[in-house]
């Protein structure tokens, strides 16, 4: 079912691809992106943008920089001042309970205005709460688009474009260095900038580069090695950048922004390598709103970063925002940029109690966990709940509640056997409904029948060795997964005038995590001396939606 969901999404977004050529203005940095008609059928809670909550009350003021579109605003939200323009940055919570925002900026008086960004300085700023105001505590050094994360050994890594800083403490001292990258015979997708990181369960790190390539490092500082064969982003036209990736107790999440269309997409994954794109916008202009409905109508929302709770759930988004076109932000004028904090609905904690995929006629039980400020016995509108596959629930379908019972402070819900749409491919069944006060309630759960830490096999480019009548082929296959891989097969095809021809197959025995295996093959295919061929290498263990490894080679030099 989830494969049908992917096909449905991408077929519908072909409409987007066909219509994306319409531009409002060649100089306005905006292109109108029509949405698929099916998005009109999405229910509240289907799109990530539905999770944005009102900005907490603060110091509302009109006595600051900015156009009428962002005045009055909460000037104590995030970080801003008249001395600097700020951009990018994410927050980590310190051991003392304070919040640390690592953000970049440049003097507002710079003659180049916003164009000064390539000479950004990274600042360590601090607040006693996650919304701000943040104030500068330290200057780290030169750098742009910072993102900070913590290694298993306790050290902090502060990434900036083309460099990193490493320290034992959030207070430094910071040692400047560089990451090392191994593309593993694959083209680097749109360069290595605007990187974003998520810790895997074993302490290794997954990285997504600006172009949507997936990379893995065993420690977070060791060499990042490219695993993906193509970008992970939605298969639609768009000027994609600013990916942010994070992992919670259920799955991996990613948001990527089409800066020209001012629309962002939300993706999910069970392993961080193979992704599905959910329908609906992840965010659009207009998400920075106050409790009374007033908008801080920022012209651009970019460089999204996520603050997570103890379960890994997204509880806050931080954005770099600007009140006008970047080129209109001049030296010491009324325009500028800042970092803002917008709270998110984290969802509820749920767990599926069925131990296997529900058979026909079998009901479904989930446990809804109580939390501070949330009593599932009293706070849920049970009649509003729908549970099942994302394809069903996001469009208002899904199984309905037929019974409920208390289990201590938690609540056990029984859902009907019909309508859930669950299949063996659904790795994160979804709950959507409302609280009794009418606000959105949602949650994801793992499915006991899904392997969340599988072997992830990836092959290097084969090496061809000409022989008498046959050509020997050597293929190195590596396992980037967190568990020993299952037995698999390797298939090598070559493009010819007759189409794709299978020229060799081989067996891949189980490979330990981070291990590798050399597979020896041979073929009698009549390669022409000096001719370059197009090849397709497939591995049977891969997710059905994962693309094969395509490459060109000259087998007989």
Could you characterize what this model shows?
- This protein is mostly beta strands.
- 5% of the residues lie in helices and 40% in strands.
- It contains three helices and 39 strands.
- The chain has a five-stranded mixed β-sheet, with no helix packed on it. A four-stranded antiparallel β-sheet has the order 5-6-7-8, with no helix packed on it.
Mean of pLDDT: 92
Spatial strand arrangement across the major sheet: 13-17-16-15-14
Give start-end ranges of low-pLDDT stretches: 1-27
Terminal residue distance:
46 Å
Tell me, briefly, the overall form: globular
What is the helix fraction of residues, given as a range?
under 10%
| Structural class by sheet pairing and helices | mainly beta
Strand content: 35-45%
Gyration radius, in Å: 25 Å
Quick description:
The protein is mainly beta and 557 residues long. Helices cover 5% and strands 40% of the residues.
Detail the topology: elements first, then pairings.
Blueprint: H1 2-19, E1 23-25, E2 30-31, E3 60-61, E4 73-74, E5 84-93, E6 99-107, E7 121-127, E8 135-142, E9 147-150, E10 156-160, E11 163-167, E12 175-177, E13 181-182, E14 196-199, E15 205-208, E16 214-217, E17 224-226, E18 240-247, E19 252-258, E20 263-269, E21 276-277, E22 300-308, E23 314-322, E24 337-343, E25 350-352, E26 364-368, H2 376-379, E27 380-388, H3 390-393, E28 401-407, E29 410-415, E30 430-435, E31 440-444, E32 457-459, E33 463-466, E34 471-479, E35 488-496, E36 499-508, E37 516-523, E38 533-539, E39 549-553
Parallel strand pairs: 13-17
Antiparallel strand pairs: 1-2, 3-4, 5-6, 6-7, 7-8, 9-10, 10-11, 11-12, 14-15, 15-16, 16-17, 18-19, 19-20, 20-21, 22-23, 23-24, 25-26, 26-29, 27-30, 28-29, 30-31, 32-34, 33-34, 34-37, 35-36, 35-38, 38-39
